[in-house]
Amino acid sequence: MKQHEAIYDARQLGTGKIMILGLQHMFAMFGATVLVPIITGLNISTTLLFAGLATLFMHFVTNNKVPVFLGSSFAFLGGYAAVKQAGTDAGMDTAQALSYACVGVACAGLLYLVLSAICKAWGSNNVMKYFPPVVTGPIIIAIGLNLAPSAINSCSTNWWIALVAIVVVIVCNIWGKGMIKIIPILLGVIASYVVAAVSGNVDFTAVKDAAWFGLPIIWKNTGLYVLTSSETDWGMVVTAIITIVPIAFATMMEHVGDISAIGGTVGRNYIKDPGLHRTLIGDGVGTIIASLFGAPANTTYGENTGVLALTKVYDPLVIKIAACYAILLSFSPKFAAVIEVMPTATIGGVSLILYGMISAIGVRNVVENKTNFQESRNVIVAALILGLAVGINFSEAGAIPIVIGDITINMTGLAVASIVGILLNAILPGKDYHFVEEPDETLASSLGKY
Fold it and tell me: What's the distance, Cα to Cα, between the start and end of the chain in Å?
């Protein structure tokens, strides 16, 4: 595959320009990366720290060949919400419940390593045929649909502030040029935040009281604390694992699409060199370590792929500089406090768009891969996934309890739907999906993190 004409060795630009390019990549990922801990309740400083560390590890394991940034994944929001609710119902506080969710995410990260080993041993094509778009697409659609009500609830705290965020995101995304088009979410958050602050809807007391410097990890909020505590609720651990792990089947497909998008942008086939098995290791280990220390799952970021296309500078060095910026910011509690006091309505406004985009990208996943819905087996697979995921989630119980001895496992709609969809697709005759290793340059505009 012919490499595009562009500056690949950024060092010829000079130190000043390299640092600015790295700052631009940091801003591109920033809005979405910090939005995940804001929505879930995870720690912002911890999130920034492990986004940076995961990115540096990804570059190490891929021999510094792939210009990719790993930031917070939106795909797991439904899992975090379900486990948090299960923990709350069991009498836990939010931080404690999220620690159990982190254990589930860490186990989801282990699937990346398993898939990496299988891809290395038997080839990517033989593995990916079991996770076609007819399965992963509806799963992604269901994630967005299940989350949408929470966005409406947040918006309802102050619809005017929420509307500012929504309008700015739309305007920047549709009519924006250059960098403005790359960071519409960040600009929407800033505009809504400023309007809220000017109108007296923000309490900055926490910002005033926060220290300028502090450690970004809170031990009791980590998955490691759950696994080593004498008071661990192992029923909740199993519930978290079963709830969250199936989501990884969708995010692994997302990973393949993102790596293809980056390859299409740069003009290099990263799925073959350094290999899909290496990028999966980078993503998987980054997610495992981040979640064990209380940060969200990581994923490859489409915004940064957009910046690559905009600047034509493909050197992974600028991405690593962005990762270092994120790590430095993680050691400032005052900076985190500025984000934490953000109005609920601001979060609701951008979330309403993001959750809808999650479902829309699931639809796109099905359409772009030309899934044939004239085949009854494909209709049945998609129908059961959507019906189970949404139906169970909004049922009176909200989950299907399974009792094994003294352990009660609450199977969420998403978990049941994912398992049923994967198994049904594997059993029913007529599978026609073929995984293609060659990157598709049309994927360069994909915002695959959702």
Answer: 28
Considering the entire predicted model, what is its pTM? 0.70
Q: Residue type for 307, please? A: V
Q: Does the pLDDT of residue 167 top 90, yes or no?
A: yes
User: Considering only CA atoms, which of 377, 349, 442 is closest in space to residue 38?
Assistant: 349
Residues near 171 by Cβ (< 8 Å), separated by ≥ 6? none
Give yes or no for a contact between 141 and 363, defined as CB atoms under 8 angstroms apart.
Answer: yes
Cα separation of 108 and 40, whole Å? Answer: 17
Q: How many CB atoms lie within 10 A of CB 171?
A: 15
Cis-peptide into 274, omega within 30 deg: yes
Most confident of 156-160, 179-183, 299-303: 156-160
Query: DSSP state, 313?
Result: B
Residues in the chain: 450
CB–CB of 104/243 below 8 Å?
yes
Q: Is residue 173 classed as helix, strand or coil in its secondary structure?
A: helix
Among 126, 125, 47, 114, residue whose Cα is nearest residue 80: 47
pLDDT at 193 over 70: yes
Place of tokens 């790590």: 327
Strand pairing of 400-404 and 407-411? antiparallel
What whole-number distance in Å separates Cα of residue 70 and Cα of residue 77? 16
Instruction: Report how far residue 333's alpha carbon sits from residue 221's, in angstroms, rounded to the nearest whole number.
Output: 16
Q: Which pairing describes strands 298-300 and 70-72: parallel, antiparallel, or unpaired?
A: antiparallel
Determine the angle formed by the axes of helices 413-427 and 77-89, rounding to 10 degrees. 130
Q: What are the start-end ranges of the H helices in 267-332?
A: 276-292, 302-311, 316-329
pLDDT of residue 264: 66
Of 297, 271, 327, 340, the C-alpha closest to 22 is: 327
Query: What span, in angstroms and rounded, lies between the C-alpha atoms of 24 and 176?
Result: 16
For residue 400, the cross-strand partners are 411
Q: For the chain, how long is the longest CA-to-CA vector?
A: 65
Amino acid at residue number 319 = I
Peptide linkage before 316 cis (omega within 30 of 0): no
Q: What are the residues facing 402 on neighbouring strands?
A: 409
Token pair of 151, please? 């966005």
The distance from CA 254 to its chain's CA centroid, rounded to whole angstroms, is 10
Q: What sign results for the dihedral spanned by CA atoms 345, 70, 4, 367?
A: negative
User: In whole angstroms, how large is the CA radius of gyration of the chain?
Assistant: 21
Dist CA 314 CA 176 (whole Å): 23
